[in-house]
Specification:
It contains nine helices and no strands.
């Protein structure tokens, strides 16, 4: 156990039996579809993770479920995507101009003399540094809080629940350590899998496995993220409802 998280159950439930592995494989195929169909497959993956998260909120054991209610999964995924989009909009407003500026800069600098081009690069460097100094401090708390708002949507089954900040903030405050632990678990497993990818990519033969592993990893990490947040949210509600 780690801050109330049964790590063995969390990490292993997608591989528990042949049926679970089959559903994980289907999720990998959905992830592969994202190479050909924009956005929609990722919404479905998020919606599937919502079904697993609801098991946690109901106090059930974790298990992979059949890929049946595609419309419902798409609806749930679209809700969470909308929540994430709204709450990360300030970062997007800051980041998109920086990206566009970076793309356009070589073309603009091409028609300048060397002195003006160097001045433009200096200005771009300063703007990028200033932008990062704003974006990074904003990104860290959002990475912790946005999943809480998403889980509140899952719990209440309505998109508007994400904007009732006072409600989900109380759950967050009741179990801050649990939510931080959930973020840490997801970050740690992401780093481990990133190292595995680098090792596989460094070899010619094993690199071929990435065609199978990368889509499966996308599903696996999505499940880990929403399962851990759901556990932290469930425990936060339990603590909030305890008698003073």
């Amino acid at each position: 156990m780690f801050f109330g998280f049964d790590l063995k159950e969390i990490f292993m439930f997608p591989f528990r039996d042949e049926e679970a592995r089959k559903y994980l494989l289907i999720g990998g195929l959905v992830s592969i579809a994202a190479f050909f169909i924009p956005v929609v497959p990722y919404l479905v993956l998020m919606g599937y993770s919502v079904q697993i998260a609801r098991q946690v909120l109901r106090g059930e054991s974790l298990r992979m479920v059949p890929w049946e209610d595609w419309g419902g999964m798409l609806k749930d995924g679209a809700r969470l995507f909308g929540v994430r989009l709204v709450y990360t909009l300030p970062i997007l407003i800051l980041a998109i101009p920086l990206v566009l500026f970076g793309i356009a800069m070589p073309f603009v600098a091409e028609g300048m003399n060397s002195g003006d081009a160097e001045a433009l690069i200096a200005v771009y460097s300063i703007v990028m540094l200033a932008g990062m100094c704003i974006i990074v401090p904003l990104s860290l708390p959002l990475a912790l809080l946005v999943p809480v708002a998403e889980m509140h949507v899952v719990d209440k089954d309505e998109f508007s629940a994400s904007f009732r900040i006072k409600d989900w903030w109380q759950v967050f405050r009741a179990n801050i350590g649990g939510f931080i632990a959930a973020f840490g678990i997801y970050y740690a497993i992401s780093m481990v899998l990133a190292i595995v990818i680098q090792i596989l990519a460094a070899t010619v033969i094993l690199a071929c496995l990435l065609l199978i592993i990368l889509p499966a990893m996308t599903v696996y990490l999505t499940l880990i993220m929403y399962v851990t947040v759901a556990i932290a949210y469930r425990d936060g509600k339990a603590k909030l409802n305890q008698p003073a």
